[in-house]
Amino acid sequence: MTRKVSVVEKVHSVNDQLAAENQLQLQKAGIFSINLMASPGAGKTSLIEKTLAGLDPAITVAAIDGDVATSIDADRAAKAGATAVQINTGGQCHIDASMLRSALEQLDLATFDLLLVENVGNLICPASFKLGTDKNILIASIPEGDDKPYKYPAMYQDVDALIINKIDLLPYIDFKMDYFKAGVEMLNPGLITFPISCKTGQGIEDWIQWLTDQIRAGDSS
Ligand SMILES: Nc1nc2c(ncn2[C@@H]2O[C@H](COP(=O)(O)OP(=O)(O)OP(=O)(O)O)[C@@H](O)[C@H]2O)c(=O)[nH]1
Ligand SMILES: [Mg+2]
């Protein structure tokens, strides 16, 4: 008889254990954390920049940027005012909980109110690797097309909030918002959604308000 061991299941259960440890560490430090996921170029780093520009300056922010090879995104986050750490995944298409743990070791977590984790640009792999952050947030962007919830359901199913970026491009792209939203609603009913433009600043205020409320709710619990 041939015995089958599911390597994938084993990898995920080890990752889940490490994610739970990260979560505990972040909670103990009293830092509110989000995992930003999106396809390449959707606007993850742009959103970090806009968020840093719009947040109450009393809120201290750390950013951990996952990238296959460069430190371009961490440099941008640092320039925008965050204390930034770069994770180079060495070719991997996602950040996993163990990579996040190594990055967390480089930060004095108790000195920050907010941690923004920028995952590697990808709509498949990051959905399967929990990190232990308080919220998982997906950024969709208009040029990607309105069919993405239908084609990448796992990513849309499990997130706590959705940002629709690049709405300034709606007049130029055949993107049917009703069709897109119907797909999202089917997978994740009632999902809180922020249509924004990092270019024009439209919608950013509502996002910042929601984020600030989340950070403050953690402070009082
Ligand atoms: N028109 C328009 N362009 C935008 C907007 N937000 C970001 N961009 C542009 O989109 C490109 C990619 O933005 P980034 O913020 O680097 O995207 P990213 O998701 O961090 O990209 P990766 O980290 O490489 O996956 C840049 O040229 C931005 O200037 C927007 O709201 N409207
Ligand atoms: Mg980026």
How would the blueprint of this fold be written?
Elements lengths: L6 H23 L2 E7 L5 H11 L6 E7 L4 H8 L3 E6 L8 H8 L9 E5 L16 E7 L6 H4 L1 H5 L3 E5 L11 H11 L4 E4 L8 H17 L1
Parallel strand pairs: 1-4, 1-5, 2-3, 2-4, 5-6, 6-7
The chain binds guanosine-5'-triphosphate (GTP) and magnesium ion.
Tell me the domain tally: 1
H-E string: HEHEHEHEEHHEHEH
Kindly, what is the distance between the CA atoms of the first and last residues, rounded to a whole number of angstroms?
54 Å
Total count of helical runs of at least 4 residues: 8
Bound molecules: guanosine-5'-triphosphate, magnesium ion
Just give the CATH class.
Alpha Beta
The main β sheet shows up as: 7 strands, parallel
- Quantity of strands, as a count: 7
Low-confidence stretches: none
Radius of gyration: 17 Å
CATH architecture: 3-Layer(aba) Sandwich
For the biggest β-sheet, the strand order reads 3-2-4-1-5-6-7
Q: Helix- and strand-based class?
A: alpha/beta
Tell me the fraction of residues in β-strands, as a range.
Answer: 15-25%
Say what the CATH topology is.
Rossmann fold
Q: If you average the pLDDT, what whole number results?
A: 94
Report helical residue fraction.
25-40%
| Overall geometric form | globular
The H-level CATH homologous superfamily, spelled out, is P-loop containing nucleotide triphosphate hydrolases
